[in-house]
Amino acid sequence: MTALLQHPGYDEERLKGVAEKLPCREVQAGMLLSLMGQPHQYSYPSIFIYGHRASGKSHVMHVLMKELELSHATVSCVECVSIALLFEQVLLSFFGCDAASLLPRSPSLSDFVRVYRQQCSQSPAKQTRYIVMEKAELLRDTDASLLSALLRLQELVEDNVTVILLSEIAWDKFRPNTGCFEPLLLHFPDYSKSELQQILSQNVHPSYSAGFYSAYINILLGVFYSVCRDLRELRHLAALNFSKFCEPLAEGKVKETDTHKLWKHIEPHLKKAMQTVYLREVSSLQWEQMQQMEEEEAGALRGLSAHTHVELPYYSKFLLIAAYLASYNPARTDKRFFLKHHGKIRKTNFLKKNEKTSNHLLGPKPFPLDRLLAIFYSVVDSRVAPTASIFSQISSLVTLQLLAQVSHDDQLDAPKYKCAVSLDFICAIARTVNFDIVKYLYDFL
Amino acid sequence: MLKLTCFPTFSHFAVDSHIIMSKRKARDAHLPVGECIKQVQQILRERFCERRLPDRLEGVEAQYKHLLELLRRTAIHGESNSVLIVGPRGAGKTTLLQCVLRDLQKEEKVQKNLLQVHLNGLLQTDDRIALKEITRQLHLENVVGDKVFGSFAENLAFLLEALKKGNRSSSCPVLFVLDEFDLFAHHKNQTLLYNLFDVSQSAQAPIAVVGVTCRLDVLELLEKRVKSRFSHRQIHLLSSLNFTQYLERVWTQLSLPDSFPDKKFAQEWNAGVKTLCEDKSVEEVLQRHFNSSKDFRSLHMLLMLCLSRVSVAKPTIKPADLLEASRMCFADTTANMLHGLSILELCLVIAMKHLNDVYEGEPFNLQMVHNEFKKFLHRKSNSMYNFEQPVVMKAFEHLQQLELIRPVDGSSAKVQREYQLMRLTLDHSQIMEALQKYPQCPTDIKQWAMSAFG
Ligand SMILES: Nc1ncnc2c1ncn2[C@@H]1O[C@H](COP(=O)(O)OP(=O)(O)OP(=O)(O)O)[C@@H](O)[C@H]1O
Ligand SMILES: Nc1ncnc2c1ncn2[C@@H]1O[C@H](COP(=O)(O)OP(=O)(O)O)[C@@H](O)[C@H]1O
Ligand SMILES: [Mg+2]
Ligand SMILES: [Mg+2]
To answer: In A204, A256, B146, B448, which residue has its Cα 20 to 30 A from B418's Cα atom?
Structure first.
């Protein structure tokens, strides 16, 4: 805490307020303040802050800027779809809307710097101005010189201005080929488990004791910490599952202090939440509803992703099966699988020397249409529809993204396809038409 | 007649506040420590943030003379010329030019005579924008009005002609400065460069073109017709500094000027800096920096980090400060990011490392990585990390977002996500180091990472 309180030039009361709002980030905030220096002094032209998602980068900047009332412009590179928007926001924040309106219609960097300098000579900075760029990695995708120019904006506009870039990608991946003004690098380390515990425990529910809530957070972290350290996500999960945790308490079955019983009650729920909420397969609202009607249909919980809802016509299912087989079996094994009287051939007979990797690791291979049709006719036996309707079904499978068309420039007239569904999915489809697909897959022979 | 004001080159360099201050105060004023530290911060920050021209240039006397002479000939005798200043980033190219211009401006003959146009490749990203900026800086917007020109050359000629008007028989010499010169070579047809060099060579009007660039191969970027019009004068700023000189530079960069208001404090500070530079551990650290870069900019960054640790409670720079600052400069940013991965993500990285070893750097896809990971779990009969495919997929995507893995070029968007070919952007040693630092890394995972085969 003391690191934060000794910064001459800033109001002490306000610094205290900052310290309170930034648990576990005192060191970083203190470091930043000492780099920024007193408000009227020059601050380093550009500072690059990097760290994992939700490591408090935006939060710290926001609290510092707001609490200490520093002159700043915060720009999110996601929202600024055009650089015009970016320039406008900066000028607006520093010099008011008149300044922003001085920009021509599609402004260049040159225009921006010209307007900035002109405004700045009219109202010179008495204090350092800050431009905070969120999600700075997106700057790389725009005009190549934008990033380089921002890094040395202080030199270009001749003003006491500092550009602070926030990103979750390391600086090494930003540096342009011919180099640039190197920013100061500041790392925000990920929160440790105990720090997460401390921060999350602050959101204690008013009608429960701090110890009880903290025990809950402890259990939550036990389940999720190995896959997810994102504070924002964890906070969301914590809020979502707390009422379930309190259930036995409300029913009077256990006491607040009986952590073990509470753990036993909540753990399976949290595990289930990992499958669904964490993966965003269901929305938080759905999850809450599902928890209510829980026992009745436990089975319907899983896999609510779009794929499971696809209802395919009978032949399309076989087409897809045929496509899957064509994608994952080597063409030379087709005879073995689909010729009626092939005699007994073992896998070793067509195992090539270097063929160790299974096709299910490498992914689907493209196949020509005639091969697909040959396999299709042999798996579907008897009742076959006219070929014309088969073609239209193929194209609708492509539209549904279950088949992917691979275009080869050299063979314009002979399109190739790939099957784009997973093994689980195709097995489920095959089951509905009573086709044992695994028997026909080379990898599982 | 046109009123020609020169481009305000130096307005940005902060007012010499401490000097004014010293004149106001008595000779041997004693200031409270708080005030002294404030002054120290102010002066040194201006220096390290590169907002102030140095009073004296170090180690570039020859280049300074050369450039000064060249520009003086243009300013006074109206000789046209072109020159390139070439040197690594932060070596002092811009500073050299600015100092020459500052000193040139002191000569009375030059003051009224020389016009300046400053362009920067980062800002004037095409020749249309550049021309607009030239017009503006020459204050000719009104003269041009909404005239339409047939070509760039015509337009430029008009501008230079416009400067002639009035009672002069010959036009004012104009200095064109092109910072980040190499970027202008990427403009369509190199029209601006061609025309400027053409004017400078054919003596249509007295102009000097000064290009500033960090690319040593800059001439190869020029088209033949452009290159042939360039004078081929180059001023190189390649530092031949040795370590003793480097140490001296550290000392001068950190020391306070004589004009510091509190003489006694300044003396003590400067003595403190001297002792700092003589410290063995400091010397070792500086040697490392010297070996990686000798330019001013990276030294300034190091010293800025030291300066930020100076406060009223600790009014000197201690060796520990420099060590800490150096640690920050040399921090491996990628390793820092690896530290924050979840254990699942870390396991995937290890699996990728093994795949890289086995298949000698061939790209891989998620299925292969997951399979490798499952093999490990199977061997250890470890069920703790048995995650479902979608959870693994999410972790994999996070790695991609962090750019720790990168899709192979040309592997099209049509491929299912789990089969998209990827490459690891980390090397072996980075992974191993990250593992050592990883908080509470399970031993079997460490062993798995270290084993020769997946
Ligand atoms: N000869 C010198 N003596 C003292 N200080 C110098 C000298 N040359 C440069 N410096 C200092 O080094 C810093 C960087 O110099 P400058 O900005 O001129 O580099 P540059 O070569 O233009 O870099 P870039 O290629 O990035 O534009 C400046 O702060 C300047 O004050
Ligand atoms: N030290 C902290 N104390 C309290 N809340 C924090 C802390 N760090 C982050 N948060 C919260 O976590 C969320 C994510 O932080 P944010 O700063 O947006 O992360 P990012 O690093 O991705 O910018 C925010 O809602 C913020 O309020
Ligand atoms: Mg953020
Ligand atoms: Mg420069």
So the answer is: B448
